[in-house]
Amino acid sequence: MSARVRVEDRECPLSTAMSYVGEWWTMLILHDCFDGYSRFDQFQANIGLSSSMLTARLKTLVDNGILTKRAYQERPVRYEYVLTDFGRSLRPILVAMAAWRNEQLAPSERAMVLVDSETGREVEPVTIDPVSGVSVSDPRFAFRSGPAAGEQMRARYARPRARDV
Amino acid sequence: MSARVRVEDRECPLSTAMSYVGEWWTMLILHDCFDGYSRFDQFQANIGLSSSMLTARLKTLVDNGILTKRAYQERPVRYEYVLTDFGRSLRPILVAMAAWRNEQLAPSERAMVLVDSETGREVEPVTIDPVSGVSVSDPRFAFRSGPAAGEQMRARYARPRARDV
DNA sequence: CAGTATCCTGTCCGATACTG
DNA sequence: CAGTATCGGACAGGATACTG
């Protein structure tokens, strides 16, 4: 999965991520795709947005390389929208969001869960440092400017931190 | 309905998460908070949005229980905004987003990185199932309706999946 | 079925000005 | 410094109508 910066080259990786997945409808369409839905009317039925908006959103997703549009039949020609590898790489973000919400609910209160489909076991995902195995919520982890930091990013991390979070 | 939907209205945990973190500025303010910034002018300098919008966003964040506003001095009274425990629980989402973008870049191209502040080592976070240790990108993991699923959510997952993703 | 096209309303958001 | 108040343009997004 290669780099694909369509939107606007902000140096902050968080801003870049937000420019891809920061829109409400975009995330819901992605959710549909991960669940195996691929067609215009399925999206519309599941999500309930207007056809003009859906058209616009699908176009950005295709332009951004997250979905591909392909004909699944001729005469009349019909299209479906499927995830690219690049699009699939967004899955951990989507899963982390759903997991965040489910953590606040008792298991019996959850409307949607992630499961291991081989066993049916419910999964409660965590985001960790793979080297230490420690959750990224641990205060020992902090952002710093990287090698490609510009002026603003360097300034941001130049001063000592006000407090640990 | 737009992103301004009341949080309780949606049973889908992903939608709920999006209603909290789905806005561009909200995420950037959170990023500032995680980096130890807490004051109005710092947010404004770092993010560069208008004071009226910043006021509005801070208000939503406080109303949603993600930040607390507290006076750090009297005469004149000055406020700062700090993360609640609830706010801190959003960290994995933010980290997962930044990590997603950094994965597309060579290490030397990264403007911002997560580090273990004890050792300075760069961290490349992953979102996994803690039981098996397998990444949530593995196709064996899939969403299903949970115990509290309503009609629509049950219907969504009732039919066999069109394809594995 | 898979969209386009058009209209219309509400909201986002910067700009500007003002306050204690 | 930490906001509040107001204006106005741009655009998100619903509703509706239409098309091959």
UniProtKB/TrEMBL annotation, chains A, B:
<feature type="domain" description="HTH hxlR-type">
    <location>
        <begin position="12"/>
        <end position="109"/>
    </location>
</feature>
<keyword id="KW-0238">DNA-binding</keyword>
<dbReference type="InterPro" id="IPR036388">
    <property type="entry name" value="WH-like_DNA-bd_sf"/>
</dbReference>
<dbReference type="InterPro" id="IPR036390">
    <property type="entry name" value="WH_DNA-bd_sf"/>
</dbReference>
<protein>
    <submittedName>
        <fullName>Transcriptional regulator</fullName>
    </submittedName>
</protein>
<keyword id="KW-0804">Transcription</keyword>
<dbReference type="GO" id="GO:0003677">
    <property type="term" value="F:DNA binding"/>
</dbReference>
<dbReference type="InterPro" id="IPR002577">
    <property type="entry name" value="HTH_HxlR"/>
</dbReference>
<keyword id="KW-0805">Transcription regulation</keyword>
<dbReference type="Pfam" id="PF01638">
    <property type="entry name" value="HxlR"/>
</dbReference>
